[in-house]
Write a structure and sequence with these properties.
This protein is of the alpha+beta class and 155 residues long. It is built from six helices and nine strands; from the N terminus they run ββαββαααβββαββα. The model has no long low-confidence stretch (mean pLDDT 91).
Amino acid sequence: MPRMNKGGKFIFGKSVIRDDGTVQIPTQAMEEYGITLEKKVYLFTGSKVTGGFCVTRKGLLAPSKLGHILTENIDLQNYASQYGEFIKYKGRHYCWADISETGQITLTDEMMRFLHIEPGTQLLSIRSSDIAFTMGAKGPLLERAQNYTGDIPMF
């Protein structure tokens, strides 16, 4: 998968939010993060510049330096909050969602409104860290991807 410029962020591909709210996670991101292993993922709000949301799973988040997000939000940790209910914690919002074995997440209308995205929105899948990847909805990276002449896989 491409880096759109030397030393730039690694791009896994683009995904489009379908009319039913489903989003397909790019294959390489699924494999690199083992994102389907637990059948549930955590979504959290992206940066102000990139928007969209970040994706991780308990097995990556809990043992990390950000594990306190779960230990201080037990309902989130135990998936006891409602599906897609965003919980505010230290400037970001977190929720959980189911993920299929094939890497599809379904965003509810409420989740999309909260994230300022909608069906038809293209999301750029970007390697963020060893804990999470970003499904970015706006900003310079997405603009650069629109003009990129190389191959960016579409999911």
